[in-house]
Amino acid sequence: MNYPMTRITIDISRIEDQRLIEELLARLGIPSRVEQVPANGQQVVAIMQEIAESRSANKVEAPIDWQREIRQDRPLPFRN
User: Fold this and answer.
1) What gap in Å lies between CA 28 and CA 64, rounded to an integer?
2) Residue 69 CB burial class (10 angstroms; 0-12, 13-18, ≥19)
3) Which of 5, 13, 61, 70 is most deeply buried (CB count within 10 A of its CB)?
4) In whole angstroms, what is the distance from residue 37 CA to residue 14 CA?
């Protein structure tokens, strides 16, 4: 028996939500297609604020000390 195809459109602004939904669809064996659409001005501002707030570098009290700490010398691959 053939069933009619149904299309569901979801507008997602957070990449984490997109990944979660794509993973769920893959587990269910449901084919999906991702299409990027231009954001309006308010969405762009909200996205930029979210990025700025999530940056861990903004929470570093002494950036120079932090940079020295993470930039420790280590052996490079394929070099002796």
Assistant:
1) 48
2) exposed
3) 13
4) 13
Which DSSP symbol is given to 61? S
C-alpha span between 12 and 29 (Å, rounded): 20
Q: What is the pLDDT of residues 8-53, one digit of tens each?
A: 888 888 889 999 999 999 999 998 888 887 777 887 888 888 887 7
CA distance 33 to 27: 15
- The pLDDT of residue 57 is above 70: no
CA distances from 59 to 25, 43, 56 (A): 36, 25, 5
Q: Residue 47: CB partners within 8 Å, gap ≥ 6?
A: 13, 39
Cα–Cα distance, 48 to 54 (Å, whole number): 10
